[in-house]
Amino acid sequence: MASRGRPRPGSLQVLAAVLLLAAASGAAAGSPDRPAPGPPLFLPLTRSYPNASQLAGSLRRGLGGGAHPNARMRLHDDLLTNGYYTTRLYIGTPPQEFALIVDSGSTVTYVPCASCEQCGNHQDPRFQPDLSSTYSPVKCNVDCTCDNDKNQCTYERQYAEMSSSSGVLGEDIVSFGRESELKPQRAVFGCENSETGDLFSQHADGIMGLGRGQLSIMDQLVDKGVISDSFSLCYGGMDVGGGAMVLGGMPSPSDMVFSRSDPVRSPYYNIELKEIHVGGKALRVDPRVFDSKHGTVLDSGTTYAYLPEQAFVAFKDAVTSKVHSLKKIRGPDPNYKDICFAGAGRNVSQLHEVFPAVDMVFGNGQKLSITPENYLFRHSKVDGAYCLGVFQNGKDPTTLLGGIIVRNTLVTYDRHNEKIGFWKTNCSELWERLHIGGGPSPAPSSDTGSQADMSPAPAPSGLPEFDVGLITVDMSINVTYPNLKPHLHELAELIAKELEIDSRQVRVMNVTSQGNSTLIRWGIFPAGPDNAMSNTTAMGIIYRLTQHHVQLPENLGSYQLLEWNVQPLTRRSWFQEHVVSILLGILLAILFTLSAFLVVLVWRKKFSGQPAYRPVDSVTPEQELQPL
């Protein structure tokens, strides 16, 4: 299984060596009949240990007669932030949606079962076999490990990171997206009854296994003849995340470089690495240092790269000697002795002006040139600082190249021709650069009606340089409006908590009932009326939303992000900024004037009715007495 977080391996076990505690071959019983060849599809990755007969079978597989069309899907999340990439897979009839870690080293695809008593709180509701009309358990047979009642096949997987998964095997319809050219297929998968370690605490629902083995989704589809024996993936670059993957064959770019990959030598996807050049000079190491028992292992699920001690020391010294202008600083995590450099600036596209280029030379003489973003990660505590994403693999002689090495690189795992290809590109523009129409397909929805035409919003690839005054987000939640209405305030607080902002910044702008679902437009405002969100803050909020970091309670079901929009902060004139003060001043002036007028009026009235004062001895006119 792919290593997640920041594992620092000390042996080949870091390859997430899956222990086949249960016979993986149990999937053979209950596998559907093999129909005529059909189309392929795009998704994310993991690894495993096939036996000799399985390997021989895979070697006999061809690309099939005729070309198979491809199906494309998005990768979500980020390798360094989350420790993994996920894709959306749909199981059952009607389909139930799951976010699965794509792992080129695992051989089982599994999701939490509704009956699981020891499963964590993940992104989506658990799989409910009773709600699927096409689900069937894999019956107990001589080729699998059975449950205590001898009724159903089971599986169990333990990983080097001390996490584990166990449960029963079932078979159901698996679909890969509304625009996938590969029609839904019956496949065997694991229904979890227990999780431990990282599998219990992770946000993703489960694992999609793409390694070599009978339970692998790749092997099942290839054995059915519906896709070619190949898959490709493309990880986004630094600070971008996401990407795309293809299951099945696809045209290779003319300048793609290849290395041989020997499936007999190792159950892992390996390449023949002979030399590493830093700044145009080869490292002074014996080429055999990269040629251990398993060769150089390429594991897209492992975060960083790990070299044998001799090669690591040479690589570290070569890079350090090229960056005299930078200051060496401590890493962000005191538990690790990271090698970090400050003063390189925030612009990733200009890192090549400071850090040296690195070339990887394969056994056939072809060379893959990688940029600094393929061996550096951003320092999380010091702005403009970066750390080496290449580490020593303890005392283990294995060379392990993780996902950081292939960021912004299209990697094709051509299993049929026993080779792996590399093509440097911008993965956010992959289809345009390959001159393939359309982008990754939107996910299918289990709802019908108006929501069927809704497509999920893409992750942000960059925002214009302006201060952000408002982010609007259209979200479809698969709960009716009467049931959702009492929870709107609770939902706003939950979104604010997941986005790490104040709850007063999240407001409901519009609510529309759409049958069995509810469409909500949220407004996300800056912290204060005179404040603005920076581009970085806005990008972070949008990224969390598009990557489904917001996790809804089970009673609110799942959601789909349909559209997001960013509006600049409106700059007000002096009059607009002080209009309230001006109005208050005018009001006070009016009140003061009225008060003064009233005082004068009362004073005059009070004194106008009294006779004028006359001295006592003054002469007064004689007045005639009135008759009684």
TrEMBL record:
Signal peptide: 1-29
Transmembrane segments: 579-603
An MF annotation (GO) of this entry: aspartic-type endopeptidase activity
Keyword Isomerase: no
Residues covered by region (Disordered): 436-459
Name of this protein: Peptidase A1 domain-containing protein
GO biological process: proteolysis
Family the entry assigns: Belongs to the peptidase A1 family.
PANTHER family the UniProt entry points to: ASPARTYL PROTEASES (PTHR13683), OS07G0592200 PROTEIN (PTHR13683:SF817)
Pfam families, per database record: ALE2_N, TAXi_C, TAXi_N
Keywords: Aspartyl protease, Glycoprotein, Hydrolase, Membrane, Protease, Signal, Transmembrane, Transmembrane helix
Active site positions: D103, D299
Taxonomic classification: Eukaryota, Viridiplantae, Streptophyta, Embryophyta, Tracheophyta
InterPro entries registered for this protein in UniProt: ALE2_N (IPR057597), Aspartic_peptidase_A1 (IPR001461), Aspartic_peptidase_AS (IPR001969), Pepsin-like_plant (IPR034161), PEPTIDASE_A1 (IPR033121), Peptidase_aspartic_dom_sf (IPR021109), TAXi_C (IPR032799), TAXi_N (IPR032861)
Domain Peptidase A1: 85-423
Segments of skewed composition (Polar residues): 444-453
Domain of life: Eukaryota
Species of provenance: Panicum virgatum (Blackwell switchgrass)
